[in-house]
Amino acid sequence: MALRGAFRTRCGLLSLLSQRLPHGNHVRGCVSPFLSTHRRNNSTAPKIKVDFDQTAGVSIMTLQNPPVNSLSLDFLTEFCSALEKLEMDKSCRGVILTSGQPKVFSAGLDIMEMYGKSPERCGEFWRAVQEMWLKLYSSNMVIIAAINGSSPAGGCLMSMTCDYRIMADNPRYSIGLNETQLGIVAPFWFKETMVNTVGHRTTEIALQLGQLYSPTEALDIGLVDKLVPEDQIITTATQTMTKWLAVPDHARQITKSMMRKPTIDKLMSKREPDIQNFVSFITKDPIQKSLGLYLAMLKKRKS
């Protein structure tokens, strides 16, 4: 995996130290790729809220892992479990995925899952990231993303696994895979998901520049499918879901599988090497030292 080479020196992650954090939950302009650097939520409260309308056959899954829906191991485990339960319930035909946190859909992977952890723990975490992608990307249900805030990196990946993306029309929000801004290379399955979404040339430019797009820019390249005022996003997603569910399930599911199976099969065939490569680079002493320096800087800024 190309990530290994990208981490041979400390330069990439040390560039973090020159970056200013966004104020509050405002994510646009923050260059962290798939790393959430906010304080972890240690609450035992559920991180996923599921509201299932059995009459409509549609569930609304709300991400509620304050402050920024960081993708921690606990969050990913709970998310995959909730999605699996809905998948097994044949009366549930569609899911609307949205955020319960203000101004952010998801800020990406939790940096604390990669700092000071054993290789075994890092491997468990990366497997959970893979599992989240696999369950979403291969789901038989219609999944619509109601993106009501910024969605960089891991949040963007989650959005791209959905069948349809509706984003709040707020110029302060952003979405994209911005890994290279830190000297990191997106894993091949991140890359291929984006190629499948916006095409090869647009992905090539986006990934090389680590581009974060405004909602209008994201609509222009096809990264999202529709923009609406933020207070209309769930209503619009519900109306859109009705259109998708009007198509016979078997025909839609087979077509979806036909389009996505090659990408899914590729990760499945390389899943263990992908985990090994991630663990090998993230546990290197220079990388751990760089992460530690970054966390110390954040602690100093918050004090």
TrEMBL record:
One of its GO terms (molecular function) is delta(3)-delta(2)-enoyl-CoA isomerase activity. Its EC number is 5.3.3.8. It catalyses: (3Z)-hexenoyl-CoA = (2E)-hexenoyl-CoA; a (3E)-enoyl-CoA = a 4-saturated (2E)-enoyl-CoA; (3Z)-dodecenoyl-CoA = (2E)-dodecenoyl-CoA; (3Z)-decenoyl-CoA = (2E)-decenoyl-CoA. Pathway: Lipid metabolism; fatty acid beta-oxidation. The keyword Isomerase applies. Keywords: Acetylation, Fatty acid metabolism, Isomerase, Lipid metabolism, Mitochondrion, Transit peptide. It is found in: Mitochondrion matrix. It holds the Pfam family ECH_1. InterPro entries: ClpP/crotonase-like_dom_sf, Enoyl-CoA_hyd/isom_CS, Enoyl-CoA_hydra/iso. GO terms for biological process: fatty acid beta-oxidation. GO terms for cellular component: mitochondrial matrix. Homotrimer. Key enzyme of fatty acid beta-oxidation. Able to isomerize both 3-cis (3Z) and 3-trans (3E) double bonds into the 2-trans (2E) form in a range of enoyl-CoA species, with a preference for (3Z)-enoyl-CoAs over (3E)-enoyl-CoAs. The catalytic efficiency of this enzyme is not affected by the fatty acyl chain length. PANTHER family: ENOYL-COA DELTA ISOMERASE 1, MITOCHONDRIAL, ENOYL-COA HYDRATASE-RELATED. Belongs to the enoyl-CoA hydratase/isomerase family. This is Enoyl-CoA delta isomerase 1, mitochondrial.
